[in-house]
Structure to design on (376 residues):
């Protein structure tokens, strides 16, 4: 993705210092572009928990690099490989505790632990952690690129039916470049369509309470030159009723192998509105966002509850400074569920790096046959 004409990923190793990992601190967007240095496990855990970075793929990539930073720390005072391994397990638990809903985080931590377990020496374990962290990031970017190549066919088909009129796409939260290492999941087909000259227009849900749509999706679409309009969260149903939405594409933080989808709070309501109005509702995800163990998403996926201050306060630019403003009565309590689960029956299909499938166990496992043994 380009920012002011320069290509960036959302996470990378600092040039000339491979002991420093750099990320775009998304708390300051769209008003300030801030790059943050991560040098310790604590830095990585804080970045994930406090949402300096966010989004399924980027959380996983940051966890991967967090384990690499943990390896550098452990090597300083771990007298044996066995003690080193114990420290790495502890670091992994610390990272996994930061965001319980996003399955990519747990997946990345265990991938790192497995990679380091294959190497006997401490130096070898550090090297394995470094290479694995880079591989996780590279694979995430490539998976999203392929999601775009597969998903663009859906937009092309609608465009032909509309005889070249702009395809109106509604999305929720930010499942864009900023949520992954590059390209994004829900946005990847949109960017691919725009790059091919297919006219598109994106309805961007503001996505309360943190406004990831209004702040982040709108910003990155603008950077890429994609026509878009920011809307309040409750406008989507009205637009669908009046024929102003052709397709809904969202992301996911965890999807069961049976097709239930956990995504940012409010996604379920958009799926219901789309279902009622006969509008296709697609979920874009890399395979790292599948949970191959959970069958019933509504009952089994853990839903993160965040602090009430995110609901009670809003952040914005005032007289050149980023400030927070109290919205509610000071003493009114607030509840802040971060995600909801959309049952598979409301999902038209899933867009993955291997292709598009139905939101069903059989269709998903047909794309990923190597997972059948886990679910036999």
């Amino acid at each position: 993705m380009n920012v002011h004409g320069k290509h960036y990923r959302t996470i990378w190793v600092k040039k000339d210092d491979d002991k420093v990992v750099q990320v775009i601190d998304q708390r300051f967007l769209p008003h300030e572009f801030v790059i943050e240095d991560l040098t310790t496990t604590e830095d990585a855990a804080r970045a994930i928990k406090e949402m300096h970075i966010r989004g399924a793929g980027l959380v996983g990539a940051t966890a991967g690099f967090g384990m690499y930073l943990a390896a550098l720390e452990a090597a300083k005072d771990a007298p044996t490989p066995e003690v080193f391994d114990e420290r790495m397990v502890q670091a992994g638990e610390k990272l996994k505790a930061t965001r319980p809903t996003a399955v990519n985080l747990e997946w990345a931590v265990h991938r790192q632990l497995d990679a380091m377990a294959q190497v006997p020496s401490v130096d070898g374990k550090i090297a394995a952690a470094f290479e694995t962290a880079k591989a996780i990031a590279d694979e995430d970017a490539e998976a999203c690129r392929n999601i775009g190549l597969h998903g663009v066919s859906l937009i092309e088909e609608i465009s032909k039916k509309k005889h070249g009129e702009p395809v109106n796409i509604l999305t929720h939260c930010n499942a864009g470049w900023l949520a992954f290492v590059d390209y994004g999941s829900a946005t990847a087909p949109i960017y691919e369509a725009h790059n091919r000259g297919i006219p598109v227009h994106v309805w961007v849900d503001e996505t309360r309470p943190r406004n990831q749509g209004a702040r982040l999706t709108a910003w990155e679409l603008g950077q890429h030159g994609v026509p878009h309009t920011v809307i309040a969260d409750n406008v989507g149903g009205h637009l669908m009723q009046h024929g102003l939405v052709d397709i809904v594409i969202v992301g996911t933080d965890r999807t069961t192998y049976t097709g239930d989808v956990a995504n940012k709070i409010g996604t379920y309501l958009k799926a219901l509105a789309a279902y009622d109005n006969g509008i296709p509702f697609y979920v874009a995800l890399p395979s790292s966002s599948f949970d191959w163990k959970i069958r019933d998403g509504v009952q089994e996926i853990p839903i993160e509850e965040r602090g009430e201050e995110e609901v009670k306060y809003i952040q914005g630019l005032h007289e050149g400074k980023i400030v927070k403003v109290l919205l509610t009565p000071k003493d009114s309590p607030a509840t802040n569920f971060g995600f909801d689960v959309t049952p598979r029956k409301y999902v038209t299909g899933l867009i993955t790096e291997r292709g598009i499938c139905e939101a069903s166990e059989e269709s998903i496992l047909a794309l990923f046959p190597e997972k059948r043994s886990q679910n036999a």
In short: Residues 122-161 form the longest helix (40 residues). The chain has a mean pLDDT of 95. The CA atoms of residues 75 and 123 lie 8 Å apart.
